[in-house]
Structure formats: C-alpha cells, structure tokens
C-alpha cells in the first residue's frame, strides 16, 4: 500500500503527505526489513523535502528518526539532526518533539563526554515526557544511567538502569512513536 500511496502523492503534488511517506518507508525499512541504511536514506529524503516545502514539524520527526540511527552506530554525524529537532521543538513548545529531541541530543552529548549538558537535557526530556504522558520511559532512564555511569556515579547509574527495567512491561517502541 505504501507504493500506491507514494504514487498518488507524486501524481497530485501532495508534498507534505510525501514527507509522511518517507517516514513510513523509513520505519518499514528499519523495523521490518532491519535495513538501517535504507531507513536513513528515506529519512534524509524526507528531511530534504520537508525543508523544501516548509513542513518543519515533519522535519523534526524525520530528523529524530535519522539521529537515532546515527546514534545506534555511535556516529556523531547525527547530532545535527537531534539538535535541530530539539531547538525547533523548544521554540515551538511541542512537548513530544522536545522529549525526543532532548533525549537524543543528550545521548550524543554523553558520547562526547559533555555530561553536564547531557544531564540537563535529560531533565528537560523528563519534564516534557511528563507533560505529554509518555508511557514508556525505558530509553530515558537508560540514558540517565549511561550519563551517570560516564560521570562515575555508579549508584545513580544503577538506580536509573533499574528504573528502566521497571518499564519492561510497557511495549517497547522507539522514537518513531511520535510520528
């Protein structure tokens, strides 16, 4: 059905809907085909189209999804996408995008050993998650745990990893949830 929908969006010049299609193709490649490189290509195509047509909210979604794939490879190239999403969401007061952008940016900062900045962003992500009622906080508490472990705060790291485990009963959904 995605191929047919893509054809229709192109035929009628529905660029904003085509941005959604790129996100859907990326999610499909990532989650059903386990092809991160194809997923990243779709997300980047969607980002470029969203930028061209001024569909910034969809650009934020696509940017977070792309950043997440870079993060899986510990590739700092994705930081620019995470920061763009976070800054856009903060400026426009979009809590679910603030959560995703802050969380992903914080994880990149932890990799860069920018631990105080990471911790501050994790606090922002936690506040945004509370405002938009995010049910699965596994990734947030894993990120806190990673940050505290990098700081040498083993007790706090352990405490946060245990909090993450406590969410194991919640269906695991990655950042594509906010699409």
Overall description:
With 179 residues, the chain is mostly helical. Helix content is 77%, strand content 0%. The longest helix is centred in the first third of the chain and has 18 residues, at 36-53. The protein is elongated. The two termini are 18 Å apart. Residues 171-179 have low confidence and may be disordered.
Write a brief caption for the model.
The chain has helices at residues 2-11, 15-31, 36-53, 56-72, 79-92, 95-111, 115-131, 138-151, 154-166. The chain has 179 residues and is an all-alpha fold.
Low-confidence spans: pLDDT under 50, at least 5 residues? 171-179
- Encode the helix/strand succession as letters: HHHHHHHHH
Range of strand content? under 5%
Structural class: mainly alpha
């Amino acid at each position: 059905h995605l191929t047919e929908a893509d054809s229709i969006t192109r035929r009628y010049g529905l660029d904003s809907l085509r941005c959604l299609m790129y996100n859907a193709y990326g999610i499909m490649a990532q989650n059903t085909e386990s092809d991160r490189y194809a997923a990243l290509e779709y997300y980047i195509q969607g980002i470029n189209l969203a930028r061209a047509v001024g569909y910034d909210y969809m650009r934020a979604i696509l940017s977070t999804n792309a950043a997440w794939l870079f993060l899986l490879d510990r590739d700092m190239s994705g930081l620019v996408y995470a920061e763009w999403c976070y800054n856009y969401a903060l400026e426009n007061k979009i809590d679910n995008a603030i959560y995703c952008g802050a969380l992903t940016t914080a994880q990149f900062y932890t990799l860069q050993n920018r631990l105080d900045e990471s911790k501050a962003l994790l606090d922002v992500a936690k506040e945004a998650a509370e405002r938009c009622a995010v049910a699965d906080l596994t990734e947030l508490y894993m990120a806190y745990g990673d940050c505290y472990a990098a700081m040498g705060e083993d007790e706090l790291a352990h405490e946060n990893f245990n909090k993450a485990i406590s969410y194991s009963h919640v269906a695991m959904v990655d950042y594509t949830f906010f699409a």
